[in-house]
Amino acid sequence: MRNGSRGIIQGTSRRRDLLTSVLALPLLVLGLSGIISACGSGSVHSPFHVDAGSEAGAAGASDTDGGLNVGDDAGDPTLGGPCADDSQCGDDISCTTDRCDQELQRCRHLPDDSQCADEVYCNGDETCDPKLGCLAGPPISCADSDPCTIDTCVEKTHSCTRTPRDADGDGDAVWNCEGGGDCDDTDPSVNSDAKEVCKNDKDDNCDGTVDESDCVTPAHDVCSQALKIDASGFTSLSLAATALDYPTKCAPASEDQMLGDIVVALEVPKGDPQDVDVVVRGSNSRVSLATTTDKCDHPVDVSCSPSFGSVSRLHLYGLVPGTYPLYVAGTVGSDLSLAVTFSAASSAPANETCGTALPIAPGVSQTAVLAQSASDLTSACDPDASEDELLSVKSGELVYSFTLSEARDVRVFANPLDDYGVPELSLRNSGCKSPSNELTCRVGAPASALFARALPAGQYFLSVASSGPGDVDVRLEESPASSPPADQGCADPPAIDSGQTLDVSLADHADTVELGCLAGAPDSSHALALSEASDVLLVSRISANDTGAVSLASPTCSEQGRLSCGTGSTSPVRAQAYGVPAGTYRAVVESALGSPATLTAFTRRATPATLVTFADDCSAPFEIPVTGGRFKGNTANQHADFSAGCDVGNQAKNGASDQLGHLRLETKSRVVLDMGGSKYDTMLSVRSGPTCPGSELQLACAAGVTASRSFLDLELESGDYYVQIDGYGGDAGAWSLDVYVTPDSI
Prior knowledge:
Layout: H1 4-24, E1 64-65, E2 68-69, E3 79-82, E4 96-101, E5 106-111, E6 127-129, E7 133-135, E8 149-154, E9 159-164, E10 227-229, E11 233-238, E12 259-268, E13 274-282, E14 288-292, E15 302-305, E16 311-319, E17 322-331, E18 335-344, E19 358-359, E20 366-369, E21 398-404, E22 408-416, E23 423-428, E24 438-443, E25 448-455, E26 458-466, E27 471-480, E28 501-504, E29 523-530, E30 534-542, E31 548-553, E32 562-568, E33 573-580, E34 583-591, E35 597-605, E36 610-611, E37 622-624, E38 629-634, E39 659-665, E40 669-674, E41 682-688, E42 695-704, E43 711-716, E44 719-727, E45 734-743
Parallel strand pairs: 10-12, 19-21, 36-38, 37-39
Antiparallel strand pairs: 1-2, 3-5, 4-5, 6-7, 8-9, 11-18, 12-17, 13-16, 13-18, 14-15, 14-17, 20-27, 21-26, 22-25, 22-27, 23-24, 23-26, 28-35, 29-34, 30-33, 30-35, 31-32, 31-34, 38-45, 39-44, 40-43, 40-45, 41-42, 41-44
């Protein structure tokens, strides 16, 4: 019944409970200076998020809300109304687990922060309020106290970067900061590494003298001073003192670097038409190439090669005798190398699209010349948009086709013939054009082997691209259709038990699971059964120079059914999922190179996170249950009490501030400690001894930088252990710790 006076009383009680619970929190970043009233004694709740990192308490807070007495349970926001069973406790808050507390005969609404997570690191941790639902957390603050650094949160690596203050992006920090020499941090052409430019009334090289005798003037900066090249060879170019006189559509975009260009006159001698292949490279500069059939100083109709970072390539086909302008653009002041090759005239590749695909026969190599190829197809293996624009560059593709008269295994090998980029392959069905027509894809260097098992009879297409404008040798191989291994696919895979580690060979595996975690990678699946709602940690150790992924998914193994995903090129790769309902799931491990890996599954009963507020030293370490658990804290306001063996050298005494936990084991156990999700460069050390803090165990200290964070997988005898939460290189901040304990008896 929610009408009449009872409804008013219940509504007021809910508001009163919420306010009291906020006031009762031990860590409160925003004090309540007053209570705003409306419509009598009802209160308006603060819309601001409670920061668990603050030490401001609620001492002295009033125990009333608008004159209403606060009940004894007002400090527990998870309690609701009376109940007899769980069916009476449903609420409209999607992030809470609702049950009837039979001891109190009251509904209890337990918040689960993981239900609110948006998987975006830099906007902070979302939290679940049992009354209000999901709340946004404070964004990650990377600010430090050093005015000489620019502090940025990097989503890709889940970390903060602190770079020397360089406002104009010329690579030289401002002169009044340590290590800097830039006397004008608003002008990217002025820095201590620049060359002095003649007659511009600027101290370009910041040596205190303007236009000194060894100053330079631009060379080949305009069409009237173009550098003549009429034969194959190499030459060095300098963009010192140049301006961007011909800003073609090909010039690399740059907001914080000043661009200039050089003009080259390509002269095709009298006689037959020729091809001219031009490659420019810059050691510390993005570069691009362009040419035109218009007058040199009025380029309108432009052909170009975009910037692939520090390399660009322009292949001009069948040029008749004459002079052709070439515009070479890059960062002012940088040194470039230019390679020009004249050869007999040929034709540009015609297999640019699905409709013009070139047949490819088994065992016969084809050379894909990707310079000037257009991009018509998309692939799941295409580079993602990135904060580093260079990581998002991809050449166009060339397309090949083949037909199978019966079911066959197919392998495609792609070897780069230069060092301009990494090959990308995409196998597509007879539809070819749409992203949904892609069957699998593969990226790799120096060789990429795409494998598809038992392809049915029919027509197929193969697109070849690269991360650069290079040439790729492509070879198709066929063999009789084979049977998949037991762990291939998700239909009926073998089981993996909690705490079990499996060696996984992916050499004969195909890409059969489409979870959207690591596109195109061979995969292996195992069934993980949970008898109760559980937290799950999947761990994969990968081979050197590989990129791996590990995922937890529903038995459908679809991207929509994916519960967690972790990728990385550093072992171990981890994926966590919290509050997973009882049932059977799929643990999937992937390898970009198809190299050997291991897979381990750890589980524990679903456990809400525990906030660690003090635990600064041995006087009151936080207790870690023998069943493990989740813990969150912040070392920023703690003291540096303990040193650690894996810290960087030359630290102040005891290094960074730290906190301490205690774990008592009654039997020999495998203990996993994972600081994934922490907001700074962590350090984790396990100590043992009869008294706190004990001594650090051998091989029980782990530093965790960027997205990897600290991770330990230890076999420990029964006894007392002290877990030291610390920071690497003096770092401190908000941390997360997952602990999984697997007794030897299991």
